[in-house]
Specification:
six-stranded mixed sheet; alpha+beta; ph1033 like fold; Aspartate Aminotransferase, domain 1; 377 residues; five-stranded antiparallel sheet; 9 helices; 18 strands
């Protein structure tokens, strides 16, 4: 069955980009109508919650083209209509939506809240299950939360048929054995899937429990895993715990400064190295700039790249902006960096100098660099 949601998995709308693309506000959401293929018109709606729905009309009859969604409808023509409509949806997803780590709205809200409250970001260590995100205690690296997707029937015994096969996103978290039964009395909490049921439970991420309720459970899980060694919220990692990277950017292909401005200081970036959440990235701009312009923090890694299957992306957040020419290629070469053609680890000595300079040019005070100016070498 054809579903618009299949083309917007792990994507959330950027309202400004929707309007630039041609969407117009309607009934609290956004709508666009587009002609496609040969004689078909699509009406596509994006709700305030970010849910995408659509209706395809055969212009010759003026009626909805029902074969689009019928599993029984087969043949080359309906296949071409589906492919053309799918291509239109993929174009909108790439132009107007941003990638997020998880499928559900609640999971993505929770990962943002955990980063803001504790400075923790998920990592995605499972190659066969790239959407499974792990939250670790920073002191010892142990898990305190695991977000994953399972068929509803694995948790709810009464579910049958399509309901049993429906995918639901859950978070596994640790609870004290003496409080387990009380926690399980809450709607949306289950005996843990695929982990020790004595110490862990699974919580459905479908808003049956509020964000604050789940965050309280995750905070308790984190404290138990940490063994009381809590890290104060917002405190930086210990020296040497993170890795510094220098990553190339092509100013001729993409306006990075504008991208940061339009996306609240964050960007999804091609991931070509073993980057982990909490690492720092220095963006080096090639000719005609030939200089490091941004210091960024890595928030999430191993995000799927919808435009290039099999590739991964990471989310970076701008932390400082350097004047063009402050750290040119000639300076990098003195520190052993001969060229920046791919992501590479940066020596602690070079990273320390740029990190210190970042205090002079933090993103809250510095203006956007001139990415078209030639760097001084």
């Amino acid at each position: 069955m054809f579903r618009e949601s299949d083309h917007f998995r792990q994507r959330r709308p950027d309202w400004a980009r929707l309007e630039v693309y041609g969407f117009r506000k309607r009934d609290g959401g956004y709508r666009i109508e587009r002609e496609f293929f040969d004689g078909f018109r699509a009406g596509i709606d994006v709700s305030r919650e970010g849910v995408v729905t659509g209706r395809v009309v055969d212009r010759e009859t003026g009626e909805e083209y029902l074969p689009l969604r019928s599993p029984e409808a087969v043949g080359p023509f309906v296949g071409k209509v589906r492919a053309a409509y799918g291509a239109l949806l993929d174009e909108i997803a790439a132009a107007c939506f941003t990638a997020v780590p998880f499928l559900s709205f609640q999971a993505n809200r929770l990962q943002t809240a955990l980063r803001e409250r504790f400075g923790d970001a998920p990592d995605f260590p499972f190659a066969r299950c790239p959407g499974y995100g792990v939250f670790r205690c920073p002191g010892n690296g142990k898990w305190y939360g695991l977000i994953l997707t399972v068929p509803r029937g694995r948790l709810e015994r009464g579910a049958e048929g399509d309901a049993a096969r429906e995918l639901m996103e859950i978070v596994n978290l640790k609870v004290a054995p003496e409080s387990r039964e009380k926690v399980l009395e809450r709607d949306g909490v289950y005996p843990c899937y695929h982990m020790n049921r004595v110490h862990w439970v699974s919580v459905a991420l479908d808003d049956r429990l509020s964000d604050e309720e789940i965050l309280a459970l995750l905070a308790a899980s984190r404290a138990m895993v940490a063994g009381g060694a809590e890290r104060p919220a917002g405190r930086a990692r210990r020296t040497g715990e993170a890795v510094s990277w220098i990553v190339p950017a092509n100013p001729r292909r993409y306006d990075v400064a504008r991208g940061f401005r339009e996306n609240g200081g964050r960007l999804d970036w091609t991931q070509t190295a073993s980057v982990s959440p909490g690492d720092e990235v220095f963006l080096y701009f090639g000719a005609p700039v030939s200089s490091v312009l941004f210091r960024c923090a890595v928030l999430a890694v191993n995000l799927p790249d919808r435009e290039r299957p099999g590739k991964r992306r990471m989310t970076i957040e701008r932390r400082a902006v350097f004047p063009s020419g402050r750290f040119p290629l000639a300076w990098l070469r003195q520190g052993g960096v001969r060229s920046v053609r791919a992501a590479r680890r940066l020596s602690e000595e070079l990273a320390r100098v740029m990190r210190a300079a970042a205090g002079e040019h933090d993103s809250g005070r510095a203006g956007a660099p001139d990415t078209n100016a030639r760097g001084r070498q």
